[in-house]
């Protein structure tokens, strides 16, 4: 029974579940009256959910409206629509709106919709003070209470008959901004206003201008008065007096400054009057400026003063500006159209001018130390004027130049460059040096005491004929050096080494080595080396020749090895020959001794063998030998010799004699071979 009830309950539940099936089709968002409305107009945003249901049943809908990702409205309704009302739209309501609906555990969102509230509220401008002094600042605040940042603020300062001055400020975090405008000289009645801008979808939108704010400016002091005495017809030597004054409301921190061409001549503080006096000169002509300052306030008055010339600058004339030492020089000072003046002649110096004479004229005999610049001064009524400088050059004659090689020795390697120096110990610079090679001018150099000349790629024929000339502005003219001859060093080429005998050398015999070069300047340094496991210098000699001979006496087995020679000269290049190999072998007599020793050993062995055979034979014959002994003893010597010769058991010794003859023959042939080797220098290109 219970089982049947359970089945019925489950079936009913399944039928109930099937009746409450639903799905979201779409979620839409709409704006009324349009997506673009004016600032202050009403705005309505509607969210609609399109839902399909299996049956007609109630469903709770959670509506959420977002602006730029931030929640602005939320409601729960049985209906499929929800409305977000904005009675008065402001620019801050501009943004991207999106609606999300949640029901029965399911959620769906609408597309994003951009709403633009055009226009901005009118900003409010306030000034910290309504009345200010020149030099102070006006502090302004511009605010848009109903707008949200980021905002751009623009402030304007306006006065009569002048272009407005504008300042801009970007505010990213607040809806107001504060700026300061300085109050300048000449400002009287000022007006200020402001407006704002914002960026919407890459477009700028501007607000209305605020109401104008009026600010009154008071002067802390009046514009200064600048007077000069005498007021006109000022001439050099006259005393001029300049006065600058003003009227101030408050004496504290007042300052008066007198300038000429940005140079401060005088100044006073906390006073209303400045005085300046001086003897007028032509350089005093120009624009004078009196400036009064107090805090940030500043007023200026300008006056142009012209000073007439009392007399022109003097002119210094020289009888000659370039002259030889010990010659006479005359300097004369004069003023065009003016005779009555006190003259003096001086020589310019870096520390202080050197006085020479109080006169219009100066005559002196000069030396080299008198070279320099000279001036004259003229004084009238306390006014001193200076002439333009005149440069005098006094010349000492050049000495005979010396020509030498910079490296020291008068030589150069073939194909290299030659650097020459021409020097003149005496003579006033500048000196002109001229280099000659033969009779041809190679180079001209202007310098103080010396000059250099580089002759490149020297050949074998470039051996002499170098000279140089030196001259300056002295009237004595040109001096010429001695002729310089150069030694051209030819580098070593093609070193070779040979020997007699060549290849094999008998122990104890003499060997002659010949090292030679194809070409190269003398003296030549020859060196001969032997190389086995290390290099050993055997011979070294300097020769004024292209070859050298070295005799090595009593060669031994340790002299076996590879030999080569090296040659060099002042070109400092070592040239190495091809190596030759020398083998030291046994001498002929050493071979004979060895052969004799061997033959002796062989003869001894044969004798021992014969003796052993004889003893053996005696033992075999026994008594018979003894019986026949007396008979044998009576035989004649000729008979003994005959028996020895015919007895086959005796060694004749002919092999020993034959071997000795062969040995002597070999020795003679060896001697002939040595003589043949001595007759020529093997392996050497210069051998004869």
TrEMBL record:
InterPro entries assigned to the protein according to its UniProt record, in alphabetical order: Ig-like_dom, Ig-like_dom_sf, Ig-like_fold, Ig_Fc_receptor, Ig_sub, Ig_sub2, Immunoglobulin_dom
Gene Ontology CC annotations of this record: anchoring junction; external side of plasma membrane; membrane raft
Domain named Ig-like: residues: 224-306, 312-391, 401-485, 491-583
Biased composition (Basic and acidic residues): 660-678
Gene Ontology biological-process entries: cell surface receptor signaling pathway; cell-cell adhesion via plasma-membrane adhesion molecules; immune response
Secretion signal, residue range per the UniProt entry: 1-17
Residues annotated as transmembrane: 593-615
Name recorded for this polypeptide: Platelet endothelial cell adhesion molecule
Taxonomy of the source species: Eukaryota, Metazoa, Chordata, Craniata, Vertebrata
């Amino acid at each position: 029974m219970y089982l049947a009830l359970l089945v019925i309950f489950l079936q009913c539940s399944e039928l109930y579940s099937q009746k409450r099936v639903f799905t979201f089709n779409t979620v839409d968002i709409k704006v009324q009256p349009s997506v673009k409305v004016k600032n202050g107009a009403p705005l309505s945003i509607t969210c609609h959910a399109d839902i399909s249901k299996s049956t007609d049943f109630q469903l709770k809908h959670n509506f959420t409206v977002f602006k730029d990702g931030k929640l602005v409205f939320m409601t729960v309704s049985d209906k499929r629509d929800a409305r977000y009302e904005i009675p008065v739209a402001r620019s801050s309501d501009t943004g991207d709106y999106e609606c999300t609906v949640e029901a029965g555990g399911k959620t769906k969102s609408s597309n994003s919709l951009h709403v633009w509230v055009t226009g901005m509220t009118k900003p409010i401008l306030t000034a910290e003070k309504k009345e200010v002094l020149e030099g102070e600042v006006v502090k302004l605040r511009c605010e848009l209470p109903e707008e949200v940042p980021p905002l751009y603020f623009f402030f304007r300062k306006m006065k009569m008959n002048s272009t407005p001055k504008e300042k801009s400020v970007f505010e990213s975090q607040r809806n107001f901004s504060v700026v300061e405008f300085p109050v300048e000289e000449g400002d009287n009645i000022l007006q200020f206003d402001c407006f704002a801008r914002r960026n919407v979808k890459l477009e700028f939108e501007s607000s209305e201008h605020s109401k104008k704010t009026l600010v009154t400016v008071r002067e802390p002091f009046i514009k200064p008065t600048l007077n000069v005495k005498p007021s006109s017809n000022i001439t050099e030597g006259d005393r001029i007096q300049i006065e600058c004054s003003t009227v101030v409301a408050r004496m504290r921190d007042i300052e008066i400054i007198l300038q000429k061409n940005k140079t401060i001549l005088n100044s006073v503080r906390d006073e209303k009057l400045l005085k300046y006096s001086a003897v007028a000169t032509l350089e005093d002509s120009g624009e004078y400026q009196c400036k009064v300052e107090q805090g940030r306030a500043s007023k200026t008055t300008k006056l142009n003063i012209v000073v007439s010339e009392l007399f022109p600058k003097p002119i210094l004339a020289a009888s000659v500006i370039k002259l030889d030492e010990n010659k006479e020089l005359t300097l004369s000072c004069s003023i065009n159209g003016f005779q009555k003046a006190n003259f003096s002649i001086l020589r310019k110096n870096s520390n202080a001018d050197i006085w020479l004479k109080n006169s219009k004229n100066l005559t002196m005999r000069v030396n080299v130390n008198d070279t320099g610049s000279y001036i004259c001064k003229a004084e009238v009524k306390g006014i001193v004027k200076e002439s333009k400088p005149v440069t005098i050059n006094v010349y000492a004659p050049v000495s005979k130049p010396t020509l030498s090689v910079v490296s020291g020795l008068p030589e150069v390697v073939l194909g290299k460059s030659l650097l020459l120096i021409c020097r003149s110990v005496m003579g006033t610079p500048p000196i002109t040096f001229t280099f000659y090679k033969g009779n041809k001018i190679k180079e001209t150099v202007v310098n103080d005491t010396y000059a250099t000349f580089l002759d490149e790629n020297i050949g074998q024929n470039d051996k002499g004929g170098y000279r140089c000339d030196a001259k300056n502005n002295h009237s004595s003219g040109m001096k010429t050096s001695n002729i310089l001859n150069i030694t051209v060093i030819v580098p070593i080429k093609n070193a070779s080494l040979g020997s007699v005998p060549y290849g094999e050398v008998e122990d104890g015999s003499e060997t002659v080595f010949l090292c030679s070069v194809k070409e190269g300047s003398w003296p030549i340094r020859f060196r001969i080396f032997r190389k086995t496991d290390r290099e050993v210098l055997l011979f070294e000699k300097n020769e004024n020749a292209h070859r050298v001979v070295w005799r090595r006496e009593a060669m031994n087995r340790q002299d076996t090895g590879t030999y080569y020679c090296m040659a060099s000269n002042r070109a400092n290049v070592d040239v190495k020959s091809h190596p030759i190999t020398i083998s030291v072998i046994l001498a002929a007599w050493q071979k004979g001794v060895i052969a004799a020793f061997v033959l002796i050993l062989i003869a001894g062995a044969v004798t021992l063998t014969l003796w052993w055979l004889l003893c053996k034979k005696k033992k075999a014959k026994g008594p018979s030998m003894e019986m026949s002994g007396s008979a044998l003893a009576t035989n004649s010597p000729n008979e003994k010799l005959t028996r020895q010769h015919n007895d086959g058991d005796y060694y004749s010794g002919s092999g020993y004699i034959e071997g000795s003859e062969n040995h002597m023959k070999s020795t003679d042939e060896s001697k002939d071979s040595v003589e043949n080797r001595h007759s020529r220098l093997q392996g050497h290109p210069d051998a004869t």
